[in-house]
Amino acid sequence: FSTVVPGDIKYKDVNGDGTIDSNDQIAIGYSTVAPEIYYSFHLGAEWRGIGFSAMFQGTANYSAVLNTKSMFWPLINNTTLSSHYYENRWTPENLTAKYPRLSSQSNANNYQTNTIWLEDRSFLKLRNVELYYKFPKNLMQKTKILGSAKLYVRGVELLCFDKIDVADPESYGATNPLNKSVVVGLKIGF
């Protein structure tokens, strides 16, 4: 902890000794290593060769501690600052900001793990979805070559429901987000 000025994070004297220090630190949030709960479910239906399938997957009771380096180190190391942090920082005009003031000076007070930097990393994702048409068997028999054919459109990682504003909850801390993709294909069997 260090000297506090306006715009710095305020801490509670948890143990009541009149001093804010490391003795006031308590456990907060859930694990930041692995979620307590994993879940998934599948949906699918087919009618007269037209069908769809979807797989959802998610986690619950999972915390993330935002990377304070990405907010403060750009000012110290002269690198790019995220517009998210810049627009949501404390200023005299923005007293209810989500994040503390920016400074080019090191500030141990604002680097501490606390509830400001803690986010709910739980999520529900549509991992993959596929819409397809299976050509009728009698049509395939007429070709005398093909045993089956399926025309499809498949999407991967298209939707994510989460509470983290700055990144994908799974790639959190990485420089690149997870890729989304849409594929159109024809699967044939002989």
Task: Provide the descriptors you would attach to this structure in a database record.
SusC/RagA family TonB-linked outer membrane protein, two-stranded antiparallel sheet, elongated, mainly beta, single chain, 4 helices, 190 residues
- Poorly predicted tracts of residues: none
Write down the overall geometry: elongated
H and E string = EEEHHHEEHEE
The termini sit apart by 70 Å
Structural class by helix and strand composition: mainly beta
Task: Work out the helix count.
Answer: 4
Average residue-wise pLDDT: 85
Biggest sheet: strands side by side, in what order?
1-2-5-6-7
**Strand percentage, roughly?**
25-35%
DSSP strand count: 7
Radius of gyration: 25 Å
Residues in helices, as a percent range: 10-25%
Major sheet details: 5 strands, antiparallel
Protein name: SusC/RagA family TonB-linked outer membrane protein
Q: Overview of this structure, please?
A:
- This protein has a five-stranded antiparallel β-sheet, with no helix packed on it.
- The radius of gyration is 25 Å and the shape is elongated.
- Helix content is 13%, strand content 34%.
- The chain is mainly beta.
- Strand 1 and strand 2 form a beta hairpin.
Topology overview:
Blueprint: E1 37-47, E2 50-60, E3 63-65, H1 69-77, H2 83-87, H3 108-111, E4 118-120, E5 123-134, H4 137-143, E6 148-162, E7 181-189
Antiparallel strand pairs: 1-2, 2-5, 3-4, 5-6, 6-7
